[in-house]
Task: structure prediction
Amino acid sequence: MRYAISSQEEAWVKACYQFFETHGMWDWYTVDQDQAVREIMRNSSGSLNPVWVKNKINDLYESVGVK
Result:
């Protein structure tokens, strides 16, 4: 079993999955984007770059039509 996360993308997927588990796979976008950034940063234990996370969240929300 691995104990270290090998990349930022892998950490992103793991942190996002926890976010989706908490808020639902289908209506997660109802959560405020700033709250999503905070939760994903918390889920990653601060290992992700906050600016990168904010940009990824913006892209994610825009992909479902939320601006």
Observations:
- Helices lie at 8-23, 33-43, 50-63.
- Residues 7 and 27 are 27 Å apart (CA to CA).
- DSSP finds three helices and no strands in the chain.
